[in-house]
Automatic annotation (TrEMBL):
Gene Ontology molecular functions: transmembrane transporter activity
Name of this protein: DHA2 family efflux MFS transporter permease subunit
Annotated organism of origin: Cryptosporangium phraense
Keyword Glycosyltransferase part of the UniProt annotation: no
Cell compartment(s), UniProt: Cell membrane
A cellular-component GO term for this protein: plasma membrane
InterPro entries (UniProt xref): EmrB-like, MFS, MFS_dom, MFS_trans_sf
Cited PANTHER family: BLR6921 PROTEIN (PTHR42718:SF46), MAJOR FACILITATOR SUPERFAMILY MULTIDRUG TRANSPORTER MFSC (PTHR42718)
Length: 462
């Protein structure tokens, strides 16, 4: 019973973070008008959060191993809650952007240790598969609820309430977590308190995310992108060199000797990059090519999160237990690949139910099948004392892969249209982007079959 209560608290914290990542988008036009944001400045309401979140995930996960995951989770939830309050109280662009950055840091502390705690709570394979499936289900629900809740709060109250709503929820999670979660002491800062390494990796990841999210405005070949990108690469390479020689490394490189962990994270970067592009481009396709309004677009895409939620909660854990995670992951990637192929052939005219819905369902069912298996594989190769770090690595790959995939696919789609806004030209650009997304999934499937799939037994027919 105590484990179930702990799982509910961890899932509640994850729901808070995922919900916040999607709830803001729908309120951006209202925020722009109210606070007099410039178009370029408005993007940093989202980007500042991503910089703080993506840049701190790895360090946050390691801190959980060193000083105790419960402490990091409590600190992250409290910081996230206070920053949400500051966001809601903001009356000018600069305070809102600064508070969003702090909110991202709090979200990183909270999210980075959650998976590691689930691994510690559920050492038995079958129970862990069920717990990870439920965790993935909550994340899918949060992604689906964000636009709906954001629209209702913005229209019914004001945009401030998309942040104020986090305050009572966050406070409740802090109180319950302090009472229910089993205390952890951690291995101690001396076993991995690598301050130079922490500075290098945090600076490198923050600058990398900052560079990627800025490509939409500045382009990939700009001096800004190339310069900041080069500095980010230098910092991350210096971090890896430091970890190879430091007496107490922040990120022990032995962690990547695990085939499961290394392979799963490589697959994740490719899969999440393709999926972020899918969500973004599908929305644009429905509105700009099919002429759907905002509400109709939301309902048109609603089958995707519903399918993901059902599969992750009810089907994927059972498949993982019966067939093993690598086989289930391969099958899920196959379904996603098929969905993207269908999207490359979507015509301009015809009913949505026959021209696009089948592809949306294929991608959603494939993702719901793949993500719990991928998560379990990424955590399976970590030692108990490294579970927080493995969780941080997994979440970092997710954020960087998502930002990079979205930026690349959106740029490809825009470059193919050559500035034309006709439905036919826009659709041609989306077709190219979906084809590249299918190629990313094909590479991910190849990695799964070559690096993760056991060779003793043949693939089952699912």
């Amino acid at each position: 019973m105590r484990n179930r209560s702990a799982l509910a608290i961890l899932c509640g914290g994850q729901l808070l973070v995922v919900l916040d990542q999607t709830i803001v988008n729908v309120a951006l036009p209202v925020i722009q008008d109210d606070l007099d944001f410039s178009p370029a400045g408005l993007a940093w309401v989202v980007n500042s959060y991503l910089v703080g979140f993506g840049g701190l995930l790895l360090l946050a996960g390691r801190l959980g191993d060193l000083i105790g995951r419960v402490r990091v989770l409590l600190a992250g939830t409290a910081l996230f809650t206070l920053a949400s309050l500051a966001c809601g109280l903001a009356t000018a662009p600069a305070p809102l952007i600064a508070a969003r950055l702090v909110q991202g840091v709090g979200g990183a502390l909270l999210s980075a240790v959650a998976l590691g705690m689930i691994v510690a709570l559920y050492p038995e394979t079958k129970e862990r598969a069920t717990a990870i499936g439920f965790f993935s289900f909550v994340a899918a629900v949060g992604g689906a609820l964000g636009p709906i809740v954001g629209g209702a709060l913005t229209q019914g109250l004001s945009w401030h309430w998309i942040f104020f709503v986090n305050v009572p929820i966050g406070a409740l999670i802090v109180v319950l977590a302090a009472r229910v979660l089993p205390p952890e002491r951690g291995t101690g800062l001396r076993s991995g308190a690598d301050l130079p390494g922490a500075v290098l990796v945090t600076g490198g990841l923050m600058l990398a995310v900052y560079t990627i999210v800025g490509t939409t405005e500045h382009g990939w070949a700009s001096v800004r992108t190339l310069g900041f990108g080069a500095v980010a690469v230098v910092l991350l390479v210096a971090f890896l060199a430091r970890q190879a020689t430091a007496p107490a490394p922040l990120l022990p490189l032995r962690l990547f000797r695990s085939r499961e962990l290394s392979g799963a994270n490589a697959v994740q970067v490719l899969m999440i990059g393709a999926m972020f592009g899918f969500l973004f481009l599908s929305t644009l396709l429905l509105q700009r090519v099919f002429g759907f309004g905002v509400s109709r677009t939301g309902f048109a895409l609603l089958p995707a999160p519903v399918a993901i939620a059902v599969v992750t909660l009810l089907i994927s854990p059972r498949l993982n237990t019966r067939f093993g995670e690598p086989r289930v992951l391969a099958a899920g990637l196959g379904l996603i690949f098929a969905g993207f192929l269908v999207l490359t052939q979507v015509p301009v005219d015809g009913p949505y139910a026959t021209r696009m819905l089948p592809a949306v369902l294929l991608v959603a069912i494939g993702f719901g099948t793949a993500i719990p298996a991928l998560t379990a594989l990424a955590m399976a190769g970590a030692r108990p004392e490294d579970a927080g770090l493995a969780s941080g690595v997994f979440n970092t790959g997710q954020q960087v892969g998502g930002a990079l995939g979205l930026a690349v696919l959106a740029t490809l789609a825009a470059s193919r249209t050559a500035g034309s806004t006709t439905p036919g030209a826009l659709l041609a650009g989306y077709h190219v982007a979906f084809a590249v997304a299918a190629a990313l999934i094909a590479v991910a499937a190849t990695l799964t079959l070559t690096a993760l799939l056991p060779t003793r037994r043949p693939l089952p027919i699912i």
